[in-house]
Amino acid sequence: MPYTIKDVAKKANVSIATVSRILNNQTGYSEKTKKKVLTVIEELGYHPNAVARGLVNKRTHTIGVLVPALSSMFVAEVLDGIEKAANEAGSSIIVCHTESNGEKTMNYLQLLNEKRIDGIIFTSGILKDEYYEFTSKMKIPMVLLATLSHKHPVPYVKVDDYKASYAAAEYLVAKGHTKIGMISGNKMDIIAGIPRIEGFKKALEDHGISVNEKNVVYCEGFAFLDGVEGSRKLLEQNPELTAIFAASDELAIGAYSTLYQMDLRVPDDLSIIGYDNLSIAKMSIPPLTTVEQPLIKMGEEAARMVFSMLESGEAAKSRIMPHQMIERLSVKEKG
Amino acid sequence: MPYTIKDVAKKANVSIATVSRILNNQTGYSEKTKKKVLTVIEELGYHPNAVARGLVNKRTHTIGVLVPALSSMFVAEVLDGIEKAANEAGSSIIVCHTESNGEKTMNYLQLLNEKRIDGIIFTSGILKDEYYEFTSKMKIPMVLLATLSHKHPVPYVKVDDYKASYAAAEYLVAKGHTKIGMISGNKMDIIAGIPRIEGFKKALEDHGISVNEKNVVYCEGFAFLDGVEGSRKLLEQNPELTAIFAASDELAIGAYSTLYQMDLRVPDDLSIIGYDNLSIAKMSIPPLTTVEQPLIKMGEEAARMVFSMLESGEAAKSRIMPHQMIERLSVKEKG
DNA sequence: AACTTCTACGTAAACGTTTACGCAAAAGTC
DNA sequence: GACTTTTGCGTAAACGTTTACGTAGAAGTT
């Protein structure tokens, strides 16, 4: 029903080729016909059909974003950055909610493949062989966001979890703490789990604090409830702690809750430092000291990498983004 | 580079029409050729090109979602629901971050129009005339989510803000409170601002509590910082309050912060009730009593409405979703 | 004036599908 | 066995673009 290039051509008494040339501002027409065609376009309210364009150009100006969860603040921020950069590059994003489920993920990859998207951003989760094989057959740029693969050569953008954790732990010892516990995420998680645990341990060791296995508790995930339970367990098995490093802000906020129930005050009875710097970090009471991942910037960067790969045809270089200590009020100098 | 229907046809010694028929399981071929074609498809790893399909079918199986903010939990939950329902219906979503900006919104509408999406979900914001005129020219289904238009006939899905606010206020008086304040959003906002204010006032009146203008404070928006400032102002101009209704959970959490700084305890010194039931509501200390908007379900419903309009060609009926009181620990019986 | 070179277009094929139409052979009917 | 009907398939047009190629006339060159 909408007007097509043919309607424009007919009304302007030119061929569709000329209209197309004007639309894509190429050369090969006079100023006069350009004016005329533009007027007709305006009059009809014509707008080119991106589907048809996509068919011939083999570019849809759309990228696919795979995320493990949608109603998570972590993902929300990352998406914010991706969308912004994509929009600036004249592209749209299709978001796919995988629930970290292999089958759903494969279905989404299938779908994205059929839709001939220009690139993929795979966010925060393990890149299974199956995914890699499929996407590499698609021959389109892919970048990993807040995750990485040791096995497959896919560029990523990430902070250095090991270093960031190290920094968090070191911050606590610099504040005079020596009895420090950690609420970690899943210890099977090679990406966000293990490196944070290792960074934490190393920092303590390097400062002459022996780390006892009782000082770290392993949760299933990085969510609020994990933090509630994890902190309870941690304090049961080691009541003398004066500070806790939580591997995510949500875990930290979960800890806040159980500490409150145990009638322990943050930071007077116990200092807490988080990880991520989500918006809840500054909303909590007391405001949470945390090590920031620049999530929005990471999203932007990932999107830009996809577009640059698209332009250049070459693989982009992975990028480690800087983390940063955000000092608020949940950590107290140990007198 | 990927295989096309022609490759399949050639290898299977049939025409492309036959392959197409099999793909779309229509009739007009024998079991034997179906087997053969399917085998060839499997061998080649052929997958149909949705762009080409879209061109002829005039259906892209993609809907556009316009949201005012991306890194907001409100939007995140709503998106969760939309994505889920869209996926079940075999469609994808393109998300557009308008920042409630007229120009950006128009640009996105333009883009979505060119991409020939099948439908639009417009979330939480004012439907300007300009938007309506444009989208009605597109002749595709649109539904309003968490907003509505008195002026234009666009179906919506929403809770009844007036009633929900009324319920919140009534809940507070049922708990014995009589000195009740409100932190409202923008008083110019015809959708989420005014009705909540009116519902609040009406409930007090109906219970014989006279409402003083000093009892409600108007913020710019519904965000955390608005709540921080709003609650401060509210308590300055009316220190004797025993309960506060915040027009959003973020406003409530903002209030938590200033109360904490003023050394007032929730709910012992002051009861607070929120609005939305975002995930922070249960993470806060104390957990926030609030009136829930079923955000995920609302998202699902909106998406389903788009698809049903697409099938039937008729306008869907607007839907008022039920709100619900979520009792947690931030409101105390006034002795 | 007789060339070459540009400029400003138009024609038609291509992108990868779906589908209306046509037709030969198989199957059913009497 | 002479029909009608059905089944199984192929041909070609259409969807709305882009673009390679061709060409007539204008402009430049000698």
N→C terminal distance of chain A = 76 Å
Q: Which secondary-structure class do the elements of chain A indicate? A: alpha/beta
Named at the architecture level, the CATH assignment of the largest domain in chain A is: 3-Layer(aba) Sandwich
The best one-word shape of chain A is: elongated
Radius of gyration of chain A: 26 Å
Q: Residue share in helices of chain A?
A: 40-55%
Largest interface: A-B, 53 and 53 residues
Instruction: Just give the CATH class of the largest domain in chain A.
Output: Alpha Beta
What multimeric state do the chains show? homodimer
Give the number of domains of chain A. Answer: 3
Report mean pLDDT of chain A, rounded to a whole number. Answer: 93
Strand order of the largest sheet of chain A: 2-1-3-4-5-11
CATH superfamily of the largest domain in chain A: Response regulator
CATH-defined fold name of the largest domain in chain A: Rossmann fold
Task: Report the order of strands and helices of chain A.
Answer: HHHHEHEHEHEEHEHEHEHEHEHEE
**In total, how many beta strands of chain A?**
12
Key terms:
homodimer; 335 residues; alpha/beta; 434 Repressor (Amino-terminal Domain); Rossmann fold; 3 domains; 6-stranded parallel β-sheet; 6-stranded mixed β-sheet; 13 helices; DNA-binding
